[in-house]
Design brief:
mainly alpha; 160 residues; 5 helices; elongated
Length: 160
Amino acid sequence: MPALITVHILLAVIWVGGMFFAYMALRPVAASLLEPPLRLPLWVQTFARFFPWVWAAVVLLPATGYWMILGPFEGFANVGWHIHLMQLTGWAMIAIYLHVYFAPYRRLQRAVADQNWPEGAKQLALIRRLIGINLILGLVTVAIATGGAYLAGYLASLAD
């Protein structure tokens, strides 16, 4: 169980932390310093290095999470509401990532290969919005994962 929780948390940190860095630090600097012929290939290559890590998260986060739920916790009935909510936000994040990867990211790659900078900028803007949504979901998921059990305990104590 400790190894699974560690893998689960590390993958969540890598995914959410990577989005935070890209959205809050790299994006504003790249937008202010680089014109599209430099900025767009930078993003394609950055995503090419980051997305394999996200793929690992997309596969292993649900696998480790469900293993913990179905193994040590002995089923969904034995986990708190925060685990169910974390599952919901996690699947929403995965769905958004799959869309980003298979649609606008592929179009961005094609646009950069064709040096079609207006189309590339359009696809990057869409990716930025979707990653922004995923970042919010990721931060909410982290808050739920780390504080959900404490909040549940607190609310239960109020009910007593």
